[in-house]
Structures are given as C-alpha cells and as structure tokens.
Amino acid sequence: MSPTLTLNTDGWISPARHCPSPHCDDRPEKEVSLLVVHCISLPPGRFGGPHIDQLFLGTLNPDEDPYFAGIHQLRVSAHCLIRRNGELVQYVPFSKRAWHAGQSCFEGRERCNDFSIGIELEGTDTGEYTAAQYRQLTSVSRLLLATYPAITPERVVGHSDIAPGRKTDPGTGFDWTFIERLQG
C-alpha cells in the first residue's frame, strides 16, 4: 500500500522527490480548475535516466543524444512526473503556474497553464502505462480534487484534449477508467 500523500501550504506534495524547476511563475488567477495528463520519455521511447529532470530544470545537455539538440533550449516544466515504477517527482508547487500545456484551450478558455495542474507520466503516446503509475496517479488526483474543488472528474483531461492536432498525449494506451477510481 502506498503512503498517504499530503500537501503543504506552499503547494508541495509529500512524499515525493522535489526538484524545483525555474520554469514556472505566479498564476494570473488563483482558482485551479483543470488537471491535465501528459506523457514524456527522453530520448523518446526510452525510460529511466536523468533526462526528464534535466529538461524541466533547464540543464539538458544537447550533446548526450541527437534528439536533445532540438529541445535542450526549451523552457518547459510540469507540476509532477510519475515514473514507470510509480516514483513521484514534483518540479513546481501547485500554487505556481508550470509551463506544461503550451498553446491550449479548454471550454473556450485559452492559456490552460493559467488554471491547470500538469502531471506527466513517463511513457509514450503509443504505449501503455504501468499499474504503479495508475496507483500513483489516482492518489495524486484524489488529493488534488480534495484540495481544489473546481477540479472535478470531468475536468481531468489529456494534453490532446486541450491542444488537439498539436498534441496526442497521453495517447491511445492510456486507461481513462482510472477516473472512476477517483470517486471511490
């Protein structure tokens, strides 16, 4: 059984590995009302290693992999990452705006970073995710829904939902029935 997650007043979750990212800023609006599920692997299709941390911390070395030459300069982050083994890593406190959604729109509102929380799953948009990831995602999501009442199960979406045509994650292998567990 996983330990119970808690959230401190600064917006950091525990237990989690904290890696504060410089790629965040103050939210222009205080109400958080959307949870966005993403996926990432670096290099694409490879799991483990330090590269996701390095991307979100702005320290990715472009010489370590040819793919990194095109992305090392990006200033992106997510609030959290859930690794394949269920490890939870937090880069940005939930009270801040992480730079995860890019150009996006939900229910006619643009700039989803302003009012959303972004959670990355280590994976690909064509693969499946692990049971450990779903357990951790369910735990984190339950905590967020309890903390931010404007986030409801209907307001848990994929990156593909808020940036259609531009993004496809979390992909076809993602099991959206995990949302049913949020209400239990």
Automatic annotation (TrEMBL):
<keyword id="KW-0961">Cell wall biogenesis/degradation</keyword>
<dbReference type="InterPro" id="IPR051206">
    <property type="entry name" value="NAMLAA_amidase_2"/>
</dbReference>
<keyword id="KW-0479">Metal-binding</keyword>
<dbReference type="InterPro" id="IPR002502">
    <property type="entry name" value="Amidase_domain"/>
</dbReference>
<feature type="domain" description="N-acetylmuramoyl-L-alanine amidase">
    <location>
        <begin position="21"/>
        <end position="171"/>
    </location>
</feature>
<comment type="similarity">
    <text>Belongs to the N-acetylmuramoyl-L-alanine amidase 2 family.</text>
</comment>
<dbReference type="GO" id="GO:0008745">
    <property type="term" value="F:N-acetylmuramoyl-L-alanine amidase activity"/>
</dbReference>
<dbReference type="GO" id="GO:0071555">
    <property type="term" value="P:cell wall organization"/>
</dbReference>
<dbReference type="Pfam" id="PF01510">
    <property type="entry name" value="Amidase_2"/>
</dbReference>
<keyword id="KW-0862">Zinc</keyword>
<keyword id="KW-0963">Cytoplasm</keyword>
<dbReference type="GO" id="GO:0009253">
    <property type="term" value="P:peptidoglycan catabolic process"/>
</dbReference>
<keyword id="KW-0378">Hydrolase</keyword>
<dbReference type="GO" id="GO:0046872">
    <property type="term" value="F:metal ion binding"/>
</dbReference>
<dbReference type="InterPro" id="IPR036505">
    <property type="entry name" value="Amidase/PGRP_sf"/>
</dbReference>
<dbReference type="GO" id="GO:0009254">
    <property type="term" value="P:peptidoglycan turnover"/>
</dbReference>
<dbReference type="GO" id="GO:0005737">
    <property type="term" value="C:cytoplasm"/>
</dbReference>
<protein>
    <recommendedName>
        <fullName>1,6-anhydro-N-acetylmuramyl-L-alanine amidase AmpD</fullName>
        <ecNumber>3.5.1.28</ecNumber>
    </recommendedName>
</protein>
